[in-house]
């Protein structure tokens, strides 16, 4: 059945939607093995084509190129891209980025977990490229479209016409959606019943949601490692080491991390050898400092993305708000695709001490997560003067731990910082269904001052 879905139903589905993702994926299966030189030539040609098109047909870029005297036809290396300014959400909101000759466009918006929701548009080429890149990465792990799949995602199952069509599509493609909005014991018990009945070969979802399911299964003495799950793909949140171990142990499978976003595209995905490969045929990744200057491999900075398949609504040097490090090593898998060495999280995943020292939120997470009786927590740095901690606890929690939290936080943030720890009945996820352990609203110094941290790739959102 899986083969028929992959070779007949899915191609038919894509053809009816006007997508060329099947042909595109076939090309990607070959180009992942290209030499660095061949890949570089391909990317330069794609970049010149995108920029020439944008300069002719996109009002914002036509005006910008004229203003700064930029001629895409004169480009002869990828680094010429750095002559262009960075693209932010604020610029997109304030300007017209739609191509004047675009075909049908589909409206999208980001979930706004960073506090900046964004409305943008995608053409069929962009969607096809992202679908193809995601499917290629899925196949690295020995699974494919048509293999039974459980998706734990922040999308409610409604009964509108489009949602009924989606349910029919998912049934034909052997995919089942479990809404990740609520992780109550009753809901988790229902999830486990559905997973056992469905017997998926792969699972796709937020790491926090899959870790909650894994934790509940262990606590209630229920097995999930006897179902034949091959791999769990995690996305859209920071993946912590303990979550990877929890998910892997519970489902008896590998855990594959990915990174990207609905706006920026399918940027990178982990292969079985552990490399976070960039979808480099379509995506150019730069790491930049606080002034927007490109940094070398090994240096941490903000991840900036140019998506070569976005001519209808261009994302050129787009600021993701995420912090990462490029890798200059070759992966043991032999693929020629460049890699991200680290993805350290969003700028708001970092906290700032009273003296201006920037540190990853893990510095505070480690203080809380191992305390007895803490079932769930969230750390909110409201300002340099105030940090709050929300705690969901059980009977094993000792209120003396509140003092340990205060002392530990003050040791890192500063003795004069006010620490407010509060026990709550429930911590709500973001509107998208995601969960964030650390959120900082403090003003952060330049990106370039952020130190490297242990490898903790973030995840991607492509569904």
CATH topology of the largest domain: Rossmann fold
CATH homology superfamily name of the largest domain = ANL, N-terminal domain
CATH level 1 class label of the largest domain? Alpha Beta
Q: In what order do the strands lie side by side in the largest sheet?
A: 4-3-5-6-7-8-9-13-12-11-10
Helix content: 25-40%
> In angstroms, what separates the terminal alpha carbons?
23 Å
User: Could you say which structural class the secondary elements and strand pairing correspond to?
Assistant: alpha/beta
From the spread of the alpha carbons, the general shape counts as: globular
Beta-strand share of residues: 15-25%
Commentary on this structure:
There is one protein chain. By secondary structure, the protein is an alpha/beta fold. The protein has two domains: 345 residues, Rossmann fold (3-Layer(aba) Sandwich); 102 residues, ANL, C-terminal domain (GMP Synthetase, Chain A, domain 3). It has twelve helices and 19 strands. The strands form four sheets. An eleven-stranded mixed sheet has the order 4-3-5-6-7-8-9-13-12-11-10, with helices on both faces. The longest helix has 22 residues. The chain is globular, with a radius of gyration of 22 Å. The relative contact order is 0.13.
At a glance:
It contains twelve helices and 19 strands. It has helices spanning 2-16, 21-31, 36-57, 59-68, 89-94, 124-139, 161-172, 185-198, 207-219, 241-251, 362-369, 400-413; strands at residues 106-109, 119-122, 149-153, 175-179, 202-205, 231-234, 254-261, 265-270, 276-278, 283-288, 301-307, 318-327, 339-346, 350-352, 358-360, 374-381, 386-393, 418-423, 438-440.
């Amino acid at each position: 059945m899986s083969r028929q879905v992959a070779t007949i139903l899915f191609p038919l589905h894509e053809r009816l939607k006007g997508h060329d993702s099947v042909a595109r994926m076939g090309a990607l299966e070959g180009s992942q093995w290209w030499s660095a030189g061949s890949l570089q030539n391909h990317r330069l040609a794609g970049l010149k084509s995108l920029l020439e098109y944008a300069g002719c047909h996109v009002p914002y870029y036509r005006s910008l190129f004229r203003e700064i005297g930029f001629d895409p036809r004169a480009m002869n290396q990828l680094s010429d891209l750095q002559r262009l300014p960075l693209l932010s959400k604020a610029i997109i909101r304030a300007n017209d980025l739609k191509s004047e000759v675009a075909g049908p466009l589909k409206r999208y918006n980001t979930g706004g977990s960073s506090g900046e929701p964004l409305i943008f548009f995608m053409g069929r080429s962009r969607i096809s490229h992202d679908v193809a890149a995601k499917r290629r990465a899925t196949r690295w792990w020995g699974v494919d479209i048509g293999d039974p799949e459980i998706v734990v995602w922040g999308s409610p199952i409604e009964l509108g016409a489009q949602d009924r069509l989606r349910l029919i599509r998912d049934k034909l493609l052997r995919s089942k959606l479990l809404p990740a909005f609520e992780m109550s014991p009753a809901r988790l018990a229902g999830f486990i019943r559905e997973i056992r009945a469905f017997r998926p070969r792969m699972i796709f979802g937020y790491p926090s949601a899959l870790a909650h399911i894994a934790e509940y299964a262990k606590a209630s003495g229920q097995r999930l490692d006897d179902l034949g799950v091959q791999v769990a793909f995690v996305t859209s949140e920071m993946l912590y080491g303990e979550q990877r171990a929890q998910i892997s142990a519970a489902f008896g499978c590998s855990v594959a991390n990915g990174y990207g976003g609905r706006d920026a595209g399918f940027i990178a995905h982990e292969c079985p050898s552990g490399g976070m490969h960039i979808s480099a045929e379509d995506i150019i990744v730069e790491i930049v400092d606080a002034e927007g200057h490109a940094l070398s491999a090994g240096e941490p900075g903000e991840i900036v993305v140019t998506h070569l398949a976005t001519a209808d609504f261009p994302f050129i040097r787009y600021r993701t708000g995420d912090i990462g490090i490029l890798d200059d090593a070759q992966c043991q898998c032999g693929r020629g695709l460049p890699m991200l060495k680290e993805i350290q999280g969003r700028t708001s995943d970092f906290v700032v001490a009273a003296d201006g020292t920037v540190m990853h939120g893990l510095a505070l997470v480690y203080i809380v997560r191992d305390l007895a009786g803490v079932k769930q927590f969230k750390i909110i740095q409201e300002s340099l003067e105030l940090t709050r901690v929300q705690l969901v606890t059980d009977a094993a929690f000792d209120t003396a731990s509140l003092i340990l939290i205060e002392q530990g936080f003050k040791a890192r943030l500063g003795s004069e910082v006010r620490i407010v720890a509060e026990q709550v009945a429930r911590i709500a996820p973001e509107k998208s269904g995601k969960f964030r352990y650390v959120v900082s609203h403090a003003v952060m110094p330049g990106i370039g001052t952020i130190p490297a941290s242990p490898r903790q790739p973030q995840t991607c959102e492509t569904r």
